[in-house]
Amino acid sequence: MMNHLRRIGVAVVAIAAVFSLAGCNGGDNNPLPRGNDPVRPKGHVDTDKYDKVTLECQIVSPAEIGKAIGGAVGSPDFNGAICRWTVYGAMRMTVTFNWFEWGSMSVEQRTAKKLGYETENVKVNGSSAFTQTKAGRNICGVTAKAPSRGIYTWFVEAEGGSSGDTCQSATKLMELVLKNSA
Hints:
- The chain has helices at residues 2-23, 62-69, 105-114, 166-181, and strands at 71-73, 77-79, 82-89, 92-100, 118-124, 127-133, 139-145, 151-158.
- The protein is of the alpha+beta class.
- Strands 1, 2, 3, 4, 5, 6, 7 and 8 form an 8-stranded antiparallel beta sheet that branches.
- The longest helix has 22 residues, at 2-23.
């Protein structure tokens, strides 16, 4: 009787193993782990769901950026919440824009100071803002409260030279984004 029960137990385990392996089969004898879609590999992201992910990069057009900076704009680059452009004019300029939807002016200003920037409170289109500059670099950032929520920041940095007023350029860009997003 014990041998009979042992055989039944072995048969049940064998049947379970066969069904388990059948569940891992991709259909044409290609084993696939359960839950994997053979058409879409693991890690695939349907970017059609994020059609407006770079919308903030379009608030100010490349033509407007080029006019404000004084040059031709290269291809935009998007990385997380940060949009970047390179402007080619009298000198090469790097332009960066970010919109932190849950950011606050006080947090951004404290952060700028911790990163070694000197800040100065200013007004842009009647809105409270502040500039960020760093000694020894021709870089300027302008941060202002976004009309809907959060904060906008424009940074302009002249590469390889010290001519040009980066704060004037960053302020022009802030004026544009505040006007275009109002």
